[in-house]
Amino acid sequence: MCFNLLVAPVVYAATGESFSHVQAWSLGLLGLVTLSLSTYLFFVMFVPEKF
User: Fold this and answer.
1) CA 19 to CA 23: how far, in whole Å?
2) What digits encode the pLDDT tens for the residues 7-23?
3) What is the SS3 string spanning the chain?
4) What's the predicted TM-score (pTM) here?
5) What pLDDT score was predicted for residue 2?
6) Residue 1: its pLDDT value, please?
7) Residues ≥6 apart with Cβ < 8 Å to 10
8) Which of 28, 39, 42, 45 could bridge to 4 as Cys pair (CB 3.0-4.6 Å)?
9) Domain boundaries, given as residue ranges, for the chain
10) How far apart are CA 51 and CA 45, in angstroms?
């Protein structure tokens, strides 16, 4: 979440807009879910006997 709050202003720097708190938390949550899912799928692919 903190990483997203650091990166988000860089993305919007060209247009002069900024993220609201809801947008920042939503993007942070989306990133966290994506990272969690990709980690889970990585382990399922390479260590399938545990699942």
Assistant:
1) 6
2) 766 766 656 666 677 88
3) CHHHHHHHHHHHCCCCCCCCHHHHHHHHHHHHHHHHHHHHHHHHHHCHHHC
4) 0.59
5) 66
6) 60
7) none
8) 28
9) 2-50
10) 10
